UniProtKB/TrEMBL annotation:
Taxonomy, superkingdom: Bacteria
Signal sequence segment: none
Coiled-coil region list: none
Entries under SUPFAM superfamilies matching the protein: Metallo-dependent phosphatases (SSF56300)
Entry protein name: Calcineurin-like phosphoesterase domain-containing protein
Boundaries of every Calcineurin-like phosphoesterase domain copy: 8-196
GO cellular component: a single term: cytoplasm
Gene Ontology MF terms: bis(5'-nucleosyl)-tetraphosphatase (symmetrical) activity; phosphatase activity
InterPro entries assigned to the protein according to its UniProt record, in alphabetical order: Ap4A_hydrolase, Calcineurin-like_PHP, Metallo-depent_PP-like
UniProt-listed Pfam families: Metallophos
GO BP terms: RNA decapping
Amino acid sequence: MTSTHTFAIGDVHGRADLLRSLLDGISDRAGRIGCAHRIVFLGDIIDRGPNSREAMNLVSSTLKEIPDSRLVLGNHDSFILRILDEQDSGRKQALLLHWIAKMGGRATLASYGFDFSNADLDRILDVVDVVDVDHVAILRGAEKYVELDDHILVHAGVEPGVPLTRQDPYKLMWIREPFLSFSESFGKAVVHGHTPTSSLMVERFHRRIAIDTGAHDRSILSALHIPPRGSEKVLQAVAPLQGAVR
């Protein structure tokens, strides 16, 4: 059993202000209890919120500075890779416009300096090139999930009845049902984001823990502290109180 404490962080969605506060709060907690710790980001670092680039910079520095920290790929994060890797120009443009109009990609591109007021639609396929090369590399190197002794950390959830090693990567990023209503055991507690909780709080169900508390539209970013032994604890960064962590 590892002696490292794990802090799983839910969907950031461009709220670098909340992420910075939460990372500071985690560092303070780890320092107070004198533990080695790591961060596992559960994906959707980008889109919708105003500071996706800065949020990715915080992820990058965390992965470099805190040993064994990981990024789990979210469905929003993966969309950049889908666009970059698409070879058909028509399909590529359709994916890009969908991302910009429906998924919050407009805010992401603006955070990287793309000027929509002077956008040339003939060059629309090139706009993803504004995303930092090292950020793309981080996304390409992201995990599908992270497995602990008693927990599975994943973006959206898992497909019931399918062994973890045989899970469809697409479903790990996108699934809702039948995962959310599944009433039996997954073998380990599944810690996930993707589906925002209705209470603005981290919600515990039968063998799953939902930690997406709506950073973008409700200004609450949550983390689950998972010690090597003992019960989980919750940390939250809340706006507009700058730096407030509870």
